[in-house]
Amino acid sequence: MAKDKLLSYEEALELYEPVLGFEVHVELNTKTKMFSSAPNGFGDAPNTNISPVCLGLPGSLPVVNEQAVRYSISLGLALGCSIAPSSRFARKNYFYPDLAKNYQISQFDEPIAFEGSVDVELADGTIVTVPIERAHMEEDAGKLTHIGGSTGRIQGAEYSLVDYNRAGVPLVEIVTKPIYGTEHRAPEIAKAYVSAIRDIVVALGISDAKMERGNLRCDANISLRPRGQEKLGTRTETKNVNSLRSVERAVRYEIQRQAAILKDGGSIVQETRHWHEDTGATSAGRPKSDADDYRYFPEPDLLPVVPSPELIEELRAALPEQPAVRRRRLKSEWGFTDLEFQDVVNGGLLNEITATVEAGAAPAAARKWWTGEISRIANQRDVEATSLVSPEHVAALAALVEAGTLNDKLARQVLEGVIDGEGTPQEVIDARGLALVSDDGPLIAAIDEALAAQPDVLAKIRDGKVQAAGAVIGAVMKAMRGQADAARVRELVLERASQ
Q: Hey, how many other C-beta atoms are within 10 angstroms of the C-beta on 464?
């Protein structure tokens, strides 16, 4: 892949105004697929969650998933959209090697939700309103696994395998209007917008929203126009970006790439592009099609979706607290500083810490464990922190520290045991014998032995040099294999010195 010429980000913004747009695809966590009774599950053996409808077999007919419709209406309401009194499905004709009927059932000119907006909060508290054009229902395609080659992509592969498990999974695609005025904060706003959508769908309980699994994917549209020009520039669409960090980097990269081409007198090709996490670059995909190219026409096998006003109001009344409002409330209730709370949000740990507090942990302790040791282990193992341990186990660990059963050093060992599947915190303590020694008898014996080895320490302490106790405390902690409360050992040493 040839290396693109890039203009510096600062110069790009001096010459051109970026205009953004996003299409975020949200997989719904219904039990079955959008148009069939096949299971909707992740990680199962390939081609096991299928049905005649998934495979496009002759005579098979789609049936709309009622729960997916309810979820879609809830999402539309949460996005501030109007809900269409009647919406219908259409066939989007395109060559899909992983969607056997060779067209996608989607919504085109009559989406279920339209005309909304999302308030996006940036790290410094700035609120940016992102206009929503529509949110429409559709089905996902299957998954291709490319065999051979060094990148796992189709380029250089010897052959491809198709897995239809994902074919037909319910999707809602959220499409923004063009977003103006982002200027130098365009990459930051892109990341914050996708994060806000993820927070909304998680709060609604309609999607697992795990980007690494493809539950939530972003297509980022970027165009540049010369300063002072009204006409929009030609856009590119970077497809299926699957992490918040990648969304931010991809937008920044495309701004720099397009600016370099335009400055040199070139023109931008309207095309899809692929983001490469390993190189931090995009590469050309295919020329971008317009709606006419897909030959949309009404799906003849499905009736229009006509939700009753009563259903819409029922779902509106059930909407949870808006994520931005919830964040402000929790920050106040927990007493976190701006920096402490931003660490939680940036780490994607707000829900885990909330659940840990609800399980009985103090907010400060919950934040300490999730943003500290758990995140460190996650980075070391290159996995999501949220996949390592449950909030209930973290709360139990914090309670054991609070009760004096563990100190921080022992608690870290217990945490590792829990993460490695050795059981609950208490089961790990029992199996490994990691509890603190609570009986003063063994501590006093260890102190006496340490003092005998360092006979001058007592005299120094009695002369007011209390820091001399540190040598004895260290020796006792070593003798007790770290299973002593250092504060209690210090108390006992000072008691001996006062005798």
A: 8
Q: What is the 3-state secondary structure (H, E, C) of 335-358?
A: CCCHHHHHHHHHCCCHHHHHHHHH
- Within 10 angstroms of residue 205's Cβ, the number of other Cβ atoms is 11
- The amino acid at residue 117 is S
**Residues 35 and 58 reside in one and the same domain:** yes
CA 343/CA 371 separation, integer angstroms: 7
Handedness of CA 271, 274, 275, 279 (dihedral sign): negative
| Phi, psi torsion values for 262, nearest 5 degrees | -65, -40
Model pTM score: 0.77
Q: Is the dihedral of CA 339, 340, 344, 345 positive or negative?
A: negative
Domain that holds residue 453: 440-498
The alpha carbon of residue 350 and the mean position of all alpha carbons in its chain are separated, in whole angstroms, by 11
For position 457, what pLDDT does the model report? 64
| 346 or 28, greater pLDDT | 28
pLDDT, tens digit, 9 for 90 and up, residues 293-343: 789 999 999 999 999 999 999 999 999 988 888 888 999 999 999 889 988
**Same domain as 415, residue 308:** no
